[in-house]
Amino acid sequence: MENCIFCKIINQEIPSYKIFEDEKVYAFLDISQATKGHTLVVPKQHVTDIFEYDEDLAADVFARIPKIARALEQAFPEMEGLNILNNNKELAYQSVFHSHVHLVPRYSKKDDFSIHFGNHTDQRTPEEMQAIADKIKEQVK
């Protein structure tokens, strides 16, 4: 893609702090570093978001994440956890429209990174939950 910053990074047109590269993915430090070691795993094939993945691309990208996660854990033994995030579309906070997976090392509850899902179990009846599940299940092919 012509003006895609991640395509330019993959093609070495823009410098990056490369962590890992093979024929399918390119992994590099996120320039914003939410925490030390915050890494992006990017498919070399330009796809906008998860909705454009086929099974092969998903297998290629997601199969490499544990290897990179273990590398982060080895590099930073003080790491106490890891968030793996994939934002899709603008409303879900995707800001670069070349799919990418964030690996965000966690060092403490005070590391200035948080995600809050909350507890919403009382918002839907069991019947509503079943209707939602059935609607999605019908679409899984």
TrEMBL record:
Pfam families found in the cross-reference section: HIT
PROSITE patterns per the UniProt record, alphabetical: HIT_1, HIT_2
SUPFAM superfamilies, A to Z: HIT-like (SSF54197)
Signal peptide from the UniProt entry: none
Residues covered by the HIT domain: 5-115
Superkingdom per UniProt: Bacteria
Any GO BP annotation: nucleotide metabolic process
Annotated active site: 100 (tele-amp-histidine intermediate)
Ranges that cross the membrane: none
Motif mapping: Histidine triad motif: 98-102
One function term, GO molecular function aspect: catalytic activity
Listed name of the protein: Histidine triad protein
